[in-house]
Amino acid sequence: MDGTKEPLFAEExxxxxxxxxxEKKKVLVPDLIARFQVSPATIRGDLRDLEAAGLIKxxxxxxxxxxxxxxxxxxxxxxSNVKEQKEKRQLAKAAxxxxxxGDIIILDTGTTTLELARLLRDRHNLxxxxxxxxxxxxxxxxxxxxxxxxxxxxRKNFRCTVGPFATNMLAELNVDKxxxxxxxFSAAKGCTTPDIEQAELKKMxxxxxxxxxxxxASSKVGKNSFVQFASPEHVDLLITGSRLPRELADAxxxxxxxLILAD
Length: 263
Description:
With 263 residues, the protein is α/β, with parallel strands linked by helices. Helix content is 40%, strand content 24%. It has helices at 10-24, 29-36, 40-52, 74-96, 111-117, 133-140, 164-171, 196-208, 246-254, and strands spanning 27-28, 56-59, 62-65, 104-107, 126-130, 145-149, 153-155, 160-162, 175-181, 184-186, 190-193, 209-215, 227-230, 237-241, 259-262. The strands form four sheets. It has a seven-stranded parallel sheet, sandwiched between helices. Strands 1-3-2 form a three-stranded antiparallel sheet. Strands 10-11-13 form a three-stranded antiparallel sheet. The radius of gyration is 19 Å and the shape is globular.
């Protein structure tokens, strides 16, 4: 952002703040003021909004990543990672059962969709559209799977493409099913993510797909992130973990969302 001549819109600035906090692990208010060329009041307001959305954690004089405050609880964190990885595999297995030979599908970027890609080795005449380099590499080894990689700008540290080139290329396609990850899902807002460019590409994935299937960890259900990319009515099926609290599951089904609880 240093040297940017034109001011960012508020949403762009907040998304950039989240990316910088996650990259640096700790940023101070004066550094944010200098980087984004806005007033101290504006930066403090941004930090309040981002903390309320669960995207960062405010500290005295600055901010740290939202999950960094508890990083010292190493054993608990490792145990949580094991549970999360197990749940991702469960979601992937449930999603794989929905993929048929001859399908044209989109696999969104993410670790859960990577787990899904690993289950597609024995599919035949399958076309998979991806913007994730790791997923493309995984699928490259499968003899009967054709891989279409969406071009665009490489999102640093995330190994996926974003931006107008990627969105425009995707807009020309028609697919049977899109399998999307999400940072949060709620009955009110649907799918949300902290990154604006990622949200734009995900929106296009929803538009070009005959059916949209969302894979979301149970810990992310009932929450909202920064930018919406799919409203609840645009989600045909939500796959989440069986650890989802019963009251949340009931609320989702009552709002008309079709739900699979994977175990």
